[in-house]
Amino acid sequence: MRLLIVEDEKRLALSLAKGLTAEGYAVDVVHDGLEGLHRASESPYDLLILDIMLPGMNGYRVCSALRAAGHDVPILMLTAKDGEYDEAEGLDTGADDYLTKPFSYVVLVARIKALLRRRGTGGGSPVLALGDLRVDTGARQVFRDGTEIPLTTKEFAVLEQLALRAGQVVSKADILDHVWDFAYDGDPNIVEVYISTLRRKLGAGLIHTVRGAGYRLEAGR
């Protein structure tokens, strides 16, 4: 999953990015509201962490502009303010959740996971069951025929993208966009390396190559 943090407190932003990267997310960081609006408008993100007090354009206006343009990316707003009026204003502009500083990192991660589950699985179970393959997006564990298959953070992230769209063709570009961050400028064939590793660990029959289009995950048997 690919996240964008728009936060002008650089130490906080980088600390959050480091922690969320360790959680397995691809994270981009900007420190200005206008740049945040540009990035969120031009790139596919799964969630936006948006501070309210920003230079260039405040978080309320960024959120409102994204919603007016038809972007439905989940938005978690952060603010040092506290009060019903601020929360109401944030939610009225289209934010999905609201967190007041200082906040617990554990609570932040829980809110992020809840928003992503709500969007990705319609609010249902975080466990994706595909035949004998089970992908637990909450615990970030994978089981086949009841046996856990250890995966690295990036391996799980690639599999998660395929599992969320099981039966559909997922392009290499889509996987790169959601698993690697905006700054990645390496060889796009890195996706093929991870697909090969997943086939070795999960079994060759699960992930099919659709020549010229991408990859499709089929239910395990």
What does this structure look like?
The strands form three sheets. A five-stranded parallel β-sheet has the order 2-1-3-4-5, sandwiched between helices. A four-stranded antiparallel β-sheet has the order 6-7-8-9, with helices on one face. Strands 10-12-11 form a three-stranded antiparallel β-sheet. The protein is α/β, with parallel strands linked by helices and 221 residues long. Helix 2 (33-42) packs parallel to helix 3 and helix 6 (153-164) crosses helix 8. 41% of the residues lie in helices and 22% in strands. It contains eight helices and twelve strands. The protein starts with a strand and ends with a strand.
Unreliable spans: none
**Strand coverage percent:** 15-25%
Silhouette: elongated
What is the helix fraction of residues, given as a range?
40-55%
Number of strands: 12
Instruction: Summarize the helix and strand pattern as letters.
Output: EHEHEHEHEHEEEEHEHHEE
Blueprint (SSEs and pairs):
Blueprint: E1 2-6, H1 10-22, E2 26-30, H2 33-42, E3 47-51, H3 59-68, E4 75-79, H4 84-92, E5 97-100, H5 105-120, E6 127-130, E7 133-136, E8 141-144, E9 147-148, H6 153-164, E10 169-170, H7 172-179, H8 190-202, E11 207-210, E12 214-217
Parallel strand pairs: 1-2, 1-3, 3-4, 4-5
Antiparallel strand pairs: 6-7, 7-8, 8-9, 10-12, 11-12
Helix pairs in contact: 2-3, 6-8
